[in-house]
Design a protein that fits this description.
By secondary structure, the chain is of the alpha/beta class. It has 15 helices and 22 strands. It has four domains: 149 residues, Alpha-D-Glucose-1,6-Bisphosphate, subunit A, domain 3 (Alpha-D-Glucose-1,6-Bisphosphate, Chain A, domain 3); 100 residues, Alpha-D-Glucose-1,6-Bisphosphate, Chain A, domain 3 (3-Layer(aba) Sandwich), CATH 3.40.120; 106 residues, 3-Layer(aba) Sandwich (Alpha-D-Glucose-1,6-Bisphosphate, Chain A, domain 3), CATH 3.40.120.10; 81 residues, TATA-Binding Protein, CATH 3.30.310. Helix content is 37%, strand content 22%. α2 crosses α5. 51% of the residues are buried. It holds the Pfam family PGM_PMM_II. This is Phosphomannomutase/phosphoglucomutase. Belongs to the phosphohexose mutase family.
Length: 454
């Protein structure tokens, strides 16, 4: 096919419509390029439940084997299950998924041995370059001895490893509703939760890459409405929602109210610090709540603030030796999980924390949810730089106000902060604001939106 790889090779992964933008022959070239760039003699490959995933995954494996790499195919898995395999086997890996994108999309998330990320600056640009060259000149010369293809199921080992990182032995019985969104949570949750004192109420556990019930993106409030309703109807202790490849987890309390990912980050951070003797570095991106660094300090830890994006978090995790990292987008990263993100491990921490005391989840998380946030608000603008400059000028001269440009523009005062950052792919500015109370946040949000949309 006459593929335009610039359209599908993104900053951190491959993502596009199948078969319009990419197909199995191209996946085979990506497999060969992955082996060539990483120098791997063995790799691990897994895939989600999308209709195109098994074929693309097998084609990638064929391309890798043709260049001499032995391929372990772990079949159906969540993205964090693939990271587990990469870490446990110490092999580079490739996961076939398009996360929460519609059914016609698919993609590849690649990592080096030990789940170290592969992005534009860490091999993805070279992989694209090789695939483009081979598209024009034909497939590379196969190795004298091709690699082998071996199937291996890692689900039980993955589940056991996660449970080894959280003490769930003493928790009280809990009723938990889980919305898998027809994604890979329907595959992993029954095994991970097996044997725990949980009354599990499954929603949309049938694996279906066409997402017949709702988009598998729990950050969109529309996609957790069913979960919220079911939690209230069942009188459950909490609800959990996973995205399509089950690497992100979103939590709702016993009232059906969303628990902010910042509150989950603070809760898990406090537990990870306790596991590590009250010491350690915790990473948070700059649009998580003020609550996160406060809680980290209160529990003896050192908070480190980063840009938004998993590559920045993982890089900082590796360089600082951080024990944990969290993002506003419900990605949670653990040193003991090869610095990779796993929503499932965060979910187990929430279950352990809730089950280890008698009160409801709403009361438990209230101490971690101290401020009022706007959520992320996107605005289409003609000139991102001009709008940012206007906002900076508006606040620059005011007393008691500081600013930084670590990622977009962050303006901070004693009672509030906001961040405005440009999208890399669309003509958008993204606003996140937080304040000590609702009236202050509302006034601030509206004031900044007026400047953005002027």
């Amino acid at each position: 096919m006459a593929a335009d790889l610039s359209q599908i090779v993104k900053a951190y992964d491959v993502r596009g419509v199948v078969p319009d933008q990419w197909d199995e022959p191209l996946a085979e070239l990506f497999g060969a390029a992955f082996v060539r760039v990483t120098g791997a003699t063995a790799i691990v490959v897994g895939h989600d439940m999308r209709p195109s995933s098994p074929g693309l995954s097998r084609a990638f494996a064929r391309g890798a084997a043709a260049l001499g790499a032995d391929v372990t195919e772990i079949g159906l898995c969540s993205t964090d299950q693939l990271y587990y395999a990469s870490g446990a086997f110490d092999l580079p890996g490739a996961m076939f998924t398009a996360s929460h994108n519609p059914a016609q999309y698919n993609g590849i998330k690649m990592c080096r041995a030990g789940a170290a990320p592969v992005g534009q600056d860490t091999g993805l640009a070279e992989i694209r370059e090789l695939a483009e060259r081979w598209l024009e000149s034909g497939a590379p010369e196969p190795a004298a001895t091709p690699g082998t293809l071996t199937r291996r199921d890692t689900l039980d080992d993955y589940a056991a490893y996660l449970r080894s990182l959280v003490d769930l032995t003493e928790i009280r019985p809990l009723k938990v509703v889980v919305d898998a969104g027809n994604g890979m949570g329907g595959h992993t949750v029954p095994t991970v939760f097996a044997g725990l004192p949980l009354d599990l109420v499954p929603m949309y556990f049938e694996l279906d890459g066409t997402f017949p019930n709702h988009e598998a993106n729990p950050l969109d409030p529309a996609n957790i409405v069913d979960l919220q309703k079911r939690v209230r109807e069942e009188g459950a202790d909490l609800g959990l929602a996973f995205d399509g490849d089950a690497d992100r987890c979103f939590v709702v309390d016993e009232k059906g109210d969303p628990v902010s990912p910042s509150a989950v980050t603070a809760l898990v951070a406090s537990r990870e610090l306790a596991r590590n003797g009250g010491k350690g570095t915790v990473i948070h991106n700059l649009i998580t709540s003020w609550s996160v660094p406060e809680v980290v300090k209160e529990h003896g830890g050192t908070p480190v603030r980063t840009r938004v994006g998993h590559s920045f978090i993982k890089q900082e995790m590796a360089t600082s030796g951080a024990i944990f990292g969290g993002e506003h987008s419900a990605h949670y990263y653990f040193r003991d999980f090869w610095n990779a993100d796993t929503g499932m491990l965060a979910a187990l921490h929430v279950l352990a924390a809730l089950g280890g005391q008698a009160g409801p989840l709403s009361a438990l998380v209230s101490s971690y949810d101290r401020y009022v946030g706007s959520g992320e608000i996107n605005s289409t603008v003609a000139d991102q730089a001009a709008r940012l400059a206007a906002i900076k000028a508006e606040y620059a001269g005011r007393d008691g106000i500081t600013h930084d440009e670590l990622d977009g523009l962050t303006i901070t005062s004693a009672d509030w902060w906001f961040n405005v950052r440009p999208s890399n792919t669309e003509p958008l500015l993204r606003l996140n604001a937080e304040a000590r109370d609702e009236p202050t946040m509302t006034k601030l949000r509206d004031e900044v939106l007026a400047l953005i949309r002027a």
